[in-house]
Write a structure and sequence with these properties.
By secondary structure, this protein is of the alpha/beta class. The chain is about 40% helix and about 15% strand. The chain has an eight-stranded parallel β-barrel with strand order 1-2-3-4-5-6-7-8, surrounded by five helices. Bound molecules: 2-phosphoglycolic acid. The site of 2-phosphoglycolic acid (PGA) has 13 residues, from strand 8.
């Protein structure tokens, strides 16, 4: 299992160092049955990397460029992130798919760049509320998978994250049967595409310490992608300690 904390656009360098130290303290000497990774902004990666050195916590970035290098002002490449100590990179988060108009093709390029740079992409997929109401959730996710997951992905180099858009930051979560249905569909999609179906699949969207235990009981769940609560070190660590 992987428990990933996406800090989004929060924390300056001092706050990021403090937050990572508090997570380390909360997890210290406790029996952890999962891997924990945190995803600060680009600007904090180096400082957080130094803070979490020699601990159980891994580092990831919230995004990377579709390009490898060149005249792309403001971009940060997968290779640069690897060089800064990242193990993971989130690609295709709905806040970028929607807010930055990223296409499935962009996400595929980012995931391929990550793979080439020895970074593990966490490829996010998720339906909006209307897709879910119209009974199109499975179909929408399948199209995102078809167009944004590299066919050479396997359990060692890639992770998927199912994040219903309507659940992110809303306090609403799908029931376990909907999560299980989606995880099963994704497993089936992997098999049909001759991709290793033991790839970890995370759930993300409004996870907190009160609903985490229930979500952990989903069959085929490979971990959690946590936004808001990852900024609360004690609660985030409590959820990490629930994983097995
Ligand atoms: P949330 O965010 O936990 O605040 O809902 C999840 C995410 O955006 O990855």
């Amino acid at each position: 299992m992987l428990i990933a904390g996406n800090w989004k656009l929060n924390c300056n360098i001092e706050e990021a160092k403090h937050l990572s130290s508090r997570i380390i303290e909360s997890l210290d000497r406790k029996k952890l049955n999962c891997e924990v990774a945190i995803f600060p902004s680009y600007i904090c990666l180096d400082s957080v990397n130094k803070t979490i050195e020699k601990t159980v916590i891994s580092l990831g970035s919230q995004d990377c460029s579709v390009h490898k290098s060149g005249a792309y002002t403001g971009d940060v490449s997968a290779n640069m992130l690897f060089d800064t100590g990242c193990k993971y990179v989130i690609v295709g988060h709905s806040e970028r798919r929607i807010g930055k108009l990223e296409s499935n093709n962009d996400i595929l390029s980012k995931a391929n760049n990550a793979l080439e740079s020895n970074l593990i992409p966490i490829i996010c997929v998720g339906e909006n509320a209307k897709d879910r109401e119209d009974g199109r959730a499975l179909e929408v996710i399948k199209k995102q998978l078809d167009e944004s997951v590299p066919k050479n992905s396997n359990k060692n180099n890639c992770i998927l994250a199912y994040e219903p858009i309507w659940a992110i930051g809303s306090g609403k979560i799908p029931d376990n049967s909907s999560i299980n249905e989606m995880l099963n569909m994704i497993k089936g999609w992997l098999s049909n595409n001759k991709i290793d179906n033991s790839i970890n699949i995370l759930y993300g969207g409004s996870v907190n310490k009160s609903n985490a235990k229930e979500i952990f009981s989903c069959i085929n769940l490979g971990g959690l992608l946590i936004g808001g609560v990852s900024l609360k070190p004690e609660e985030f660590s409590e959820i990490c300690l629930m994983a097995n």
